[in-house]
């Protein structure tokens, strides 16, 4: 169906699988992706997701420009529809790792920007090229790229459509890690399993505090963060975490 999904332990692996088209998002893939994100969000056994692309060339090059068609529904109906494939619209507090194995362009980079960790292969290239094809990085790119990296670099990318490579992406902080192509998925797995081993309610609260707090005045964000700490204070998992520490054993978290 163009997007593969598997669950291993508490980790979901999502692979955009149209390598011949650089994993561009055709209408079928968009529908499937929306279903998958709903599963990740609602399945309590999933604690973290890894998003990647099939093949060695591309993570995702955005909208499939050969298959895109104007939808039957009007824009307003689409705008208010549940189940959008792009993550920030979904109050998705489970972490998502973008495992960027090649080109991340247009909507592909925008999806990566909506993820929490971004790691890439040495071969990766990044760009918001929408202005070159008479469109706009309107999913989140115009807002999230300048928040993720220095404004001058973001504006250069947005206005020229130029690509940057993995070394530049690391230098400006667009990604946290660069790995050889054959080691990238292993690195993603390592991070995913570390996150999945932490207390799931704490992980979601940490993401929510960081994501929502970023857009609040600092004192409001600190208050919000303190309230989130408060709802974690009486959880069974917090007791388990403290007890396991004292007993020098690994904690067994249950998300309650
Ligand atoms: C990535 C490239 C630079 C790679 O170039 P290369 O020469 O290595 O390979 P190609 O021969 O070009 O590609 C191989 C094969 O894949 C097809 N391909 C690649 N990307 C796409 C695509 N996005 N859509 C359809 N098909 C694609 C290519 O045609 C080849 O097929 P073949 O000839 O073998 O049959 C280079 O491929 C490249 O520059 N690709 C385009 C990247 C791009 O411009 N992406 C932006 C798309 S617009 C977008 O993402 C939007 C998102 C959005 C915003 C707001 C709201 C919703 C969505 C904008 C929008 O939808 O309006």
Automatic annotation (TrEMBL):
An individual GO BP term: fatty acid beta-oxidation
Pfam family, one: ECH_1
Keyword line: Lyase
InterPro entries: ClpP/crotonase-like_dom_sf (IPR029045), Enoyl-CoA_hyd/isom_CS (IPR018376), Enoyl-CoA_hydra/iso (IPR001753), Enoyl-CoA_hydra_C (IPR014748)
Molecular function via GO: lyase activity
Similarity comment text for this entry: Belongs to the enoyl-CoA hydratase/isomerase family.
Protein name: Short chain enoyl-CoA hydratase
């Amino acid at each position: 169906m163009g997007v593969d999904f598997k669950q291993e332990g508490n980790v979901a692996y999502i692979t955009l699988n149209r390598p011949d088209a650089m994993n561009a998002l055709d209408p079928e893939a968009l529908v499937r992706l929306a279903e998958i994100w709903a599963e990740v969000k609602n399945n309590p056994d999933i604690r973290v997701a890894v998003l990647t692309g099939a093949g060695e060339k591309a993570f995702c090059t955005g909208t499939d420009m050969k298959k895109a068609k104007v939808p039957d529904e009007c824009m307003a109906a689409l705008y208010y529809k549940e189940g959008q494939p792009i993550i920030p619209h979904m109050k998705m507090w489970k972490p998502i790792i973008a495992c960027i194995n090649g080109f991340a362009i247009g909507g592909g980079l925008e999806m990566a920007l909506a993820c929490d960790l971004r790691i890439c292969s040495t071969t990766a290239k990044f760009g918001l090229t929408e202005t070159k094809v008479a469109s706009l990085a309107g999913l989140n790119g115009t807002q999230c790229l300048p928040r993720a990296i220095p404004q001058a670099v973001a504006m250069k990318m947005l206005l020229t459509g130029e690509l940057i490579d993995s070394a530049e992406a690391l230098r400006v902080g667009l990604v946290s890690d660069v790995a050889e192509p054959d080691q990238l998925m292993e690195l993603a797995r390592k991070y995913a399993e570390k996150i999945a081993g932490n207390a799931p309610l704490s992980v979601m609260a940490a993401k929510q505090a960081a994501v929502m707090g970023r857009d609040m005045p600092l004192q409001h964000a600190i208050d919000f963060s303190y309230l989130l700490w408060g709802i974690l204070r009486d959880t069974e998992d917090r007791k388990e975490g403290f007890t396991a520490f004292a007993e020098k054993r690994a904690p067994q978290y249950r998300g309650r």
